[in-house]
Each structure stands twice: as C-alpha cells, then as structure tokens.
Write a structure and sequence with these properties.
There is one protein chain. By secondary structure, the chain is an alpha+beta fold. It has one domain. It has three helices and four strands. It has a four-stranded antiparallel sheet with strand order 2-1-3-4. The longest helix has 52 residues. The radius of gyration is 25 Å and the shape is elongated.
C-alpha cells in the first residue's frame, strides 16, 4: 500500500490557493451581513419614529405638527432625515359618506427627500408652514384601510427615508424605506 504525502512546500502552496478562493467569498458574505443589518436598523428607526409621531400627534394639543416632526427628526440618529428623509402627518376624519376625508396634511419643512405622501399625494400646494392647502371639496380617502364612524379622527404619520447602500458604487439606485402608522 502506497501512502501519498504532499511535501510541506506543496501544502503551503495549496493553502494559499484555497485562501485566495475563499477570502473574497467570505468578504462578500460579511459585507452583505453588514449591509442587511444597516437596512434593518434604518427600518426599525423609521418605524419607531412613525409610532412616536402618531402618538404625539394624536394626543398633543400644544405642539404644532412641525414641532412634532422636528422632534422626531432630532431623534432619528443615525438617519439624516434633513438630507434623505421626509415626514408627513395627515388627519383623516370619518363622515356620513362611505369614505373618510382628509381634514389636514402637513409636510416637514426641513425635508431632504421629496416623494409624495402615499396615503394622499394629491396636495395642490403647500403653504410656508408646511400645511397642505386643501381643495374646497373634501378630498376623500377611497383607499383608506379602515372604516371610521362620523366624526372619528385618525392621525397618520408617514416616514420616508432614501437609504443609500454602503455599496452605492455597485448599485445605481437607493432603497426607499417607508413606514406608516395610523393612530
């Protein structure tokens, strides 16, 4: 019976080749895990912001919507909403009609990302305080996900963030992170 052994020189060469093949794969996997963890962190932060914003908007009578959105943006670290984000606060009121209507909508003044609201993106113009100048006829929410009693009010906070990948030189587009909370 013959035993085949590699010489120490050949074994070192084989280990070098294996390392050259495995290292890029491990680096790609590690970068993917880091990127995924950053996306999950950004989504969790935007969800927490939307929840807290809806809580404050539905219970606060002293603070304006702009003050609420400013406070939310300040607590958004490490996300920079003034460069890559926008916040909307909308008030929807139930009516005798089948569909509720928008009574107010506010957009954060210091936004750095400008997609329209996904709940109601048809605001004709915005005043200097970030309030939507609503049309004379009440805009109806035909796609509203719940039924409201007449006079019942729901505050909707939408947080949108334009997430830029760490590998932005590889991908030519960003990921839009969207969170909406109704309260």
């Amino acid at each position: 019976m013959k035993h085949v052994f590699c010489s120490p020189v050949k074994a070192r060469g084989l280990a070098t080749v294996e390392m050259a093949i495995v290292t890029p794969i491990l680096l790609l996997l590690g970068l993917g895990v880091i990127e995924l963890s950053h996306v999950i962190l950004a989504k969790n932060i935007s969800t927490a912001l939307a929840r807290e914003g809806a809580n404050l908007a539905s219970r606060s009578f002293a603070d304006s919507d702009q003050e609420i959105m400013d406070a939310l943006a300040l607590s958004a670290e490490p996300l920079d909403l003034s460069q890559n984000g926008v916040i909307y606060i909308s008030v929807v009121v139930g009516d005798d009609d089948t569909y509720p209507y928008i009574s107010e909508q506010h957009r954060w003044l210091d936004y750095g990302f400008s997609p329209s609201s996904r709940m109601w993106g048809s605001c004709p113009s915005w005043d200097g305080n970030g309030a939507c100048e609503l049309p004379s006829t009440k805009p109806r929410m035909t796609n509203f996900p719940m039924t409201l009693e007449p006079g019942e009010t729901v505050h909707i906070v939408e947080v949108m963030y334009d997430y830029s990948y760490l590998t932005r030189y590889v991908f030519d587009h960003n990921l839009e992170i969207y969170t909406r909370v109704l309260m």
